[in-house]
Design goal:
Helix content: 25-40%
Strand content: 15-25%
Number of strands: 23
Strand order of the largest sheet: 13-12-11-5-2-1-15-14
Shape: globular
Largest sheet: 8 strands, parallel
Distance between the termini: 31 Å
Length: 564
């Protein structure tokens, strides 16, 4: 029997930003329940909800204080039960974000580990004695964290011990080499499966296994004497055993497991994780097609230097395609950790055209597509006038200090953040023209993008038959059609004119042959066409400019064609 997620359309919700129903300026589970009919009409049947467990929110919920309760800002455990019930009544499945590589330092496990060295909870974390060099106490080794500091923090109350954290010091890493710790997490998973949760997106799972020797990295150290060497704690051989056991003891065979396995995972590695009938997880997210415009780390570049590298996009989509024959593949342009795709690969000057082109390109590639909330109305990056508007994210405070220390002006930083900061993907959903875009009656936790007053909102797009929203609904209906779904998932994929610098085009050959042609530029380009058109399935412009086997493609023009 075919896995249900192979025929699903996913939708990513950052809960704080989706819909506030209790008037505190923060989105909640009640807001998701309120909008389930909207999502069903759009064609969504799978929702991935970013973290909702109780948390001090130093890392937006990925630092969990209590796995067994919903954070009060999002509602109650009863609200989650109601969401599951109402979603299932509408044929929508729910996937929750589950961070198991680390907890909050406010989690009872960690508090007990600090208070009682002989407790079982001490073994839930990675605690090592420091080393003395010339009479000075240093961390156990030279490992660096992803936050440009040592990966070790002194253990509170201890004279010479440290705990490991590959992320922030407030997020101590858990010790997956300890069977008792693993059993504790299996209990968490079983609890939510029994509630009716349909799956989990496993955050940062590539880091669960650490080099058991805990020796120094041989790589050159940075300015602080630390070495960020992911080989020491990323995608290690032991990880597969942990994930297999999680599948066997924690969840059902019908439970969807989505793995975030980092930005450096290769297709062959991903295949071992997610091969149908063999791998312990079902979908492996990678970041290969997120930053193909040079925006990542581009703080010193002017805006005009940021341009979609279409050949690189083709290369990345194509290098993952061989996995589709044996693995279920997820597809997405962006999520809550990335800027908006319309601003990455499209244009606010051609909002309708580029948003329609981007969803068409994604929907008909292969695998299970995931839409980030708001993409269906063309939400774009912010135009904040102040750095302060970005500082609701603690990570931005640290980055601001680092960028200023590196000599960057506030003007440079603001320009860079407008195009690359993850706040762009976390602004409140734009429902209508009313106060705060209809997101909340209170002051939102995050400043609303002002373009909701320019028609970028659900209510006005519903009234426009040619809107982005209505196009999304129409395109999704084709993607979910059994014939098209089979062609996309099982038909042979061919990239057409691989070296064309501006156009991404592909053909799926199956019971019918379908062809996509997408112009990624804000200007006209030409594309040679040597096929016979049987039907135009989707098109984001009026009229067809085809003469002597050459398409003139207008800015961000796209076609989905049936060809003979």
């Amino acid at each position: 029997m075919e896995a249900w997620w192979r025929n699903s359309i996913g939708y990513i919700i950052y809960p704080a930003a989706f819909k506030d129903t209790n008037g505190d300026g923060i989105g909640d589970l009640g807001g998701i329940v309120e909008k389930l009919d909207y999502l069903r009409e759009l064609g969504i049947d799978l929702i991935w909800i970013c973290p909702i467990f109780a948390s001090p929110m130093h890392d937006n919920g990925y630092d969990v204080r209590d796995y067994f309760h919903v954070d009060p800002r999002f509602g109650t455990d009863e609200d989650l039960a109601r969401l599951l019930k109402e979603a299932h009544l509408r044929g929508i499945r729910i996937v929750l974000d589950l961070a198991m590589n680390h907890t909050s330092n406010e989690h009872p496990w960690f508090l007990k580990a600090v208070e009682e060295p002989s407790s079982k909870e001490r073994g839930y974390y990675i605690v090592k004695k420091g080393r003395y060099v010339d009479g000075k106490l240093l961390p156990p080794n030279n490992w660096g964290s992803f936050f440009s500091t040592s990966a070790w923090e002194p253990l509170p109350g201890s004279v010479d011990e440290f705990y490991l954290h590959v992320f922030a010091p407030s997020m101590p890493d858990t010790n997956w080499a300890n069977p008792e710790l693993r059993e504790a997490y299996y209990g968490v998973a079983r609890h939510y499966i029994e509630m009716g949760v349909d799956g989990f997106r496993l955050d940062a799972i590539s880091h669960l296994a650490k080099n058991p020797e805990f020796k120094d990295s041989p790589l050159p150290s940075g300015p602080g004497g630390f070495v960020l060497d992911p080989r020491m704690f990323s995608n290690r051989p032991e990880l597969m055993d942990y994930l297999k056991e999680f599948r066997e003891k924690g969840v059902n065979t019908d439970t969807l497991l989505i793995g975030e396995v980092g930005g450096s995972v290769q297709p062959d590695q991903a295949r071992t994780f997610s091969e149908r009938g063999k791998g312990p997880i079902n979908l492996v997210f990678n970041f290969d097609t997120v930053w193909n415009n040079g925006a990542y780390g581009s703080i010193g570049k002017p805006d005009e230097a940021i341009k979609a590298d279409v050949i690189s996009l083709k290369e990345n989509f194509l290098r993952w395609y061989p996995n589709a024959s044996s693995c279920d593949m997820p597809l997405y342009w962006c999520n809550h950790d990335h800027p908006r795709v319309l601003s990455q690969y499209g244009s606010t000057l051609y909002r309708k055209e580029s948003a329609k082109m981007l969803i068409t390109t994604l929907l008909f590639l292969y695998g299970t597509p995931f839409i980030h909330y708001g993409d269906e109305i063309g939400m774009s990056n912010v135009t904040y006038e102040s750095i302060d508007d970005f500082l609701i994210d603690d990570a931005n405070r640290d980055e601001l200090k680092a960028d200023r220390s590196a000599g960057h002006s506030d003007e440079e930083i603001l320009r860079f953040w407008r195009r690359a900061n993850r706040i762009n993907g976390r602004t409140p959903m734009q429902w209508n023209r009313r106060k705060n875009a209809g997101f909340s009656e209170a002051t939102p936790f995050c400043k609303v993008n002002g373009n909701y007053l320019e028609g970028v909102n659900v209510a006005e797009e519903m009234e426009d038959p040619y809107s982005i929203l209505n196009y999304f609904q129409y395109a999704i209906s084709f993607r979910k059609d059994a014939t098209y779904n089979d062609i996309v998932n099982n038909g042979r994929l061919e990239i057409v004119d691989y070296n064309h610098p501006d156009v991404l085009s592909y053909i799926h050959r199956g019971s019918s042959n379908i062809m996509l042609i997408s112009n990624f530029r804000p200007y006209e380009v030409y594309f040679t066409f040597n096929y016979e058109i049987a039907d135009i399935v989707l098109h984001n412009y009026d009229g067809v400019l085809l003469n002597n086997h050459v398409f003139t493609l207008r800015p961000y023009e796209c076609y989905l064609l049936k060809i003979r």
